[in-house]
Specification:
The protein is mostly helical and about 525 residues long. It is built from 25 helices and 2 strands. It starts with a helix and ends in an 8-residue tail after the last helix.
């Protein structure tokens, strides 16, 4: 078969995997919507759960956008800008669940921060009824994604020249960012902000660890109803997933109006004093926070006893590690490796078709996870597949493919056309051009896509537990099980294993191009 046939076969496979997106509303056709909506509104948990969800979702958007503005605004076009850009993939590789567990160990009652502030008698807590701790944690974690998106936009624009011209005319950095860069970048951040809103709105694992509990957020509440043995409760869960989609639509309308609401006045020629200096201390503080969270997870994983208000464990032990099962690790590695590799092959082949309109691949990023998982479940039932490793792999691909596409599409477009044309004139056919020239040039983006795809597969909880029916155990599902068990020592060991696997995959992806092209410095 020729490369073109393989490419169109990959396109058909992607379309088949995306059927749950196309048929998203199909599971709701059988519901009696009027009576189900009435039952949902009358549910005692609905209004407080809605309030907590709105606070955590809107709060995470505000925190993420504010932090990305401060960080990128203070670092852009400085000596530390590229260094920070190189740190972003590492920060993105940290699983959301591992970050949430670290925050929990830091801020929970009798946690490490309360131990430090014990003489001041200041209570620290997570899982507040308003969802504020969840909003801050989500905002910090998603700010790295927005910084990455801003960096990608800056690579493809002439904003650097505009920034330099404005500086030479005497404008301060804060004024340049506010009046020149933000008005041009913010409209291009609509889709990334929608992706942040979709994740924050439907996050179950982070909401389970840090969110309100009585009642929980709408996503956790819908999830618990969907798992209920009573048919009436399952129908409520289905209606709740539909409500989540409507809520995301309302947030999308708000996000699309955001550039208009935050529109800055055009530069009047008046130079204003003011320096954007808070960004660098904020960046250092956030990096230190990540190190502290990793240290806390490490300490708890080797703890035998750690009594309040001691700042360090009293006794050490390996008991927590000895209680861990090896099978979830193998399942996680096999799912992550296979899904990332398959996604890279499919995306590259789809790009090889030459079809320009491939943006539909990103659709799963802009939809709540829970309705998509319900759609996947219906799709798996239609195929008469039993809960298995293969079914979970197919479920993971729906989220791995879009992130791999985000990395590979810009790199593929940026391939040097002169070299490709020269190779064609030397007689290379389409397949040889792809294997002998494009793939070597794309090695670094492919490795970055693999690390990101592996991390995305690693983080999948709802598709794993729902499609796998609890029979496919991964490090993520085991970590949440340990959290429910309440033993911080077991939780620390399981979370550290989750974090270590993600960071090792990232490290290997970073080093592979250096090893392959050790004698070709320009390819590094």
């Amino acid at each position: 078969m020729s490369l073109r046939l393989f490419s169109f076969a990959a396109l058909l496979i992607c379309l088949a995997l995306y059927l749950p997106v196309i048929t998203l509303l199909a599971p709701f056709w059988e519901l009696e919507l009027v009576s189900s909506w009435a039952m949902l509104v009358k549910a005692t948990e609905f209004v407080p759960a809605l309030a907590g969800t709105l606070v955590s979702t809107l709060g995470s958007l505000i925190v993420a956008l504010g932090l990305s503005y401060l960080l990128m605004g203070s670092l852009i076009f400085t000596s530390g800008y590229q260094r920070f850009a190189r740190q972003l993939p590492l920060l993105l590789a940290v699983p959301h669940l591992a970050f949430a567990v670290g925050i929990y160990l830091l801020l929970s009652p009798k946690g490490w921060l309360e131990r430090i502030l014990a003489p001041l008698d200041i209570g620290i807590w997570v899982q507040d009824s308003y969802g504020l701790s969840l909003a801050v944690a989500l905002g910090i974690k998603e700010s790295w994604f927005l910084c990455w998106m801003i960096w990608a936009q800056l690579q493809q624009s002439t904003l650097a020249d505009q920034f330099l011209v404005a500086q030479t005319q005497g404008y301060q950095r804060a004024q340049i960012i506010r009046q020149i860069l933000v008005p041009q970048i913010l409209p291009k951040l609509r889709w990334p902000l929608l992706a942040v809103a979709a994740y924050s709105l439907s996050s179950v694992e982070m909401a389970w660890v840090l969110g309100p509990t009585h009642p929980p957020t709408l996503a956790v509440l819908a999830w618990s109803w969907l798992l209920d043995p009573m048919q009436e409760q399952r129908e409520l869960g289905m209606v709740m997933t539909l409500f989540l989609m409507l809520l995301l639509l309302a947030l999308a309308l708000l996000i699309w109006q955001l550039p208009i609401l935050l529109r800055a006045k055009a530069p009047s020629g008046r130079r204003r004093l003011g320096r954007l200096t808070i960004g660098r201390p904020a960046r250092r503080s956030l990096l230190v926070l990540h190190l502290i969270l990793a240290l806390l997870i490490l300490l708890w994983s080797f703890t035998h006893s750690w009594f309040y208000p001691a700042l360090l464990p009293g006794r050490w032990s390996l008991n927590a590690w000895q209680s861990l099962s090896f099978e979830p690790l193998l399942t996680t590695l096999s799912l992550g490796f296979t899904s990332a590799l398959v996604a890279i092959v499919l995306v590259l082949l789809v790009l090889e078709t030459g079809i320009k309109q491939t943006g539909w691949i990103l659709l799963p990023l802009f939809l709540p996870v829970l309705p998509l998982v319900v759609g996947q479940y219906q799709f798996i039932l239609a195929l008469d597949m039993s809960p298995s490793w293969v079914a979970v792999l197919l479920a993971h691909l729906l989220w791995v493919i879009p992130y791999v596409y985000l990395v590979l599409k810009p790199a593929y477009i940026a391939l040097p056309q002169e070299q490709l044309l020269t190779a064609r004139t030397l007689g290379l056919n389409r397949a040889e051009l792809f294997t002998r020239l494009k793939l070597p040039l794309l090695l670094r983006p492919i490795c970055a896509a693999f690390a990101l795809g592996f991390s995305v597969s690693l983080a999948q909880y709802l598709p794993t537990i729902f499609i796998g029916a609890g029979r496919v155990e991964t490090l993520t599902t085991e970590t949440l099980s340990r959290f429910a068990g309440g033993d911080k020592r077991l939780l620390g060991a399981q979370t550290l294993a989750l974090l270590a696997v993600a960071l090792i995959a990232y490290s290997l992806a970073q080093r592979l191009p250096q090893m392959v092209y050790a004698n070709r410095r320009s390819m590094h």
